[in-house]
């Protein structure tokens, strides 16, 4: 009779046998997979685990504080908040090509992680939240020619380079099982149900050049949009929802004056695995109310559009 409680005990024993008295480091992203992996390993080996949260300055409003706060204060994990926004935004200055953005972010992520990891004494293991579908995917891709539409960055190749052994306690699990394990470990339900968020973060929701003022506007608009979705009880019906700030300014009227501000696009999709997706059929009432709120509450935006492209032919993200 298989239960998540039994799996948890078994997994903890396995991690203890594997790791012994050595130290483990983990790149904590705030996503469900790395969070559950970190919580499980912490339960197994306690203070031998140190997490590094790489903050590239491309996170949503309040995200860094929420993630770091939860793990540090509620779960007692040792978390290093690597605030490297200046480094990432500096290197991204003037860059507008989507794949170039991803490559820069991927490379810096590895450099930064390595820099912080080097300061942790006696680390011999790198924890990763690899799931069963990731294992299968990497096997079925090898050998054949693979078509990459978007290069997703991860810490692939890093363990060998740093001379670390991998701990991957979620390798046998599917996503829904990881969520169940997360609940079993006491992670808050709101955290486990969070929408996926891409590694390059807001960089790929800001088509064209990334600037700090644009990121600030994007964060505010996104926060209003997600607040609307939660208030209407729609969050759990949606796979992913976000705002993209468009690289175009439009004319508007506000009171007696003329405005010349950014346009934004709202995106919301349903999906099973992110491979295909349909746009979410919001009511016109919801869309109208949300547009009004964003324009009233977010200085810098004077026009709101809704993206009704499905995947394929579109992708979920704008870049
Ligand atoms: P697309 O836009 O390709 O997105 O339809 C499919 C899923 O993947 C996420 N995504 C990424 N995740 N690095 C990531 O870690 C990336 O570069 C990246 N690009 C897209 C996207 O948010 C969606 O969940």
TrEMBL record:
Alphabetical UniProt keywords: ATP-binding, Glutamine amidotransferase, GMP biosynthesis, Ligase, Nucleotide-binding, Purine biosynthesis
Residues bound to ATP: 29-35
Top-level taxon of origin: Bacteria
Pathway linked to the protein: Purine metabolism; GMP biosynthesis; GMP from XMP (L-Gln route): step 1/1
Catalytic activity entry: XMP + L-glutamine + ATP + H2O = GMP + L-glutamate + AMP + diphosphate + 2 H(+)
GO MF term set: GMP synthase (glutamine-hydrolyzing) activity
Residues in GMPS ATP-PPase domain copies: 2-194
UniProt keyword annotation of Cytoplasm present: no
Keyword Ligase among UniProt keywords: yes
Enzyme Commission no: 6.3.5.2
Function: Catalyzes the synthesis of GMP from XMP.
Subunit text: Homodimer.
Name of the featured protein: GMP synthase [glutamine-hydrolyzing]
Species this protein is from: Tateyamaria armeniaca
First and last residues shown, out of full length: 206 to 524 of 524
């Amino acid at each position: 009779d298989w239960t998540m409680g039994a799996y948890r005990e078994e997994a903890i024993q396995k991690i203890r046998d594997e790791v012994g008295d050595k130290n483990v480091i983990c790149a904590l992203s705030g996503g469900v997979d790395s969070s559950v992996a970190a919580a499980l390993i912490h339960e197994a080996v306690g203070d031998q685990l140190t997490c590094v949260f790489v903050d590239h300055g491309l996170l949503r409003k309040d995200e860094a504080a929420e993630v770091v706060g939860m793990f540090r204060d509620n779960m007692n994990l040792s978390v290093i908040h690597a605030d490297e926004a200046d480094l990432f935004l500096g290197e991204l200055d003037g860059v507008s090509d989507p794949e170039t953005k991803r490559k820069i972010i991927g490379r810096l992520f590895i450099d930064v992680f390595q820099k912080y990891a080097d300061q942790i004494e006696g680390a011999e293991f790198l924890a990763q939240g690899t799931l069963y579908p990731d294992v299968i995917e990497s096997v079925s891709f090898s050998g054949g020619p693979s078509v990459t539409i978007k290069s997703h960055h991860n810490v692939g190749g890093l363990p060998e380079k740093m001379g670390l052994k991998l701990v991957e306690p979620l390798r046998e699990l599917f996503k829904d099982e990881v969520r169940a394990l997360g609940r079993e470990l006491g992670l808050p339900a709101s955290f486990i149900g969070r929408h996926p968020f891409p590694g390059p973060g807001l960089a790929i929701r800001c088509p064209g050049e990334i600037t700090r003022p644009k990121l600030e506007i994007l964060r505010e608009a996104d926060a209003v949009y997600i607040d609307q979705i939660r208030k209407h009880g729609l969050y759990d019906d949606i796979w992913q929802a976000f705002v993209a700030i468009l690289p175009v300014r439009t004319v508007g009227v506000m009171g007696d004056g003329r405005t010349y501000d950014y346009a934004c696009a709202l995106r919301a999709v349903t999906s099973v695995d992110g491979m295909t997706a349909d746009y979410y059929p919001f009511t016109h009432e919801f869309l109208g109310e949300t547009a009004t709120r964003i324009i009233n509450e977010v200085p810098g935006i004077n026009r709101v559009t809704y993206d009704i492209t499905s995947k394929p032919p579109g992708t979920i993200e704008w870049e």
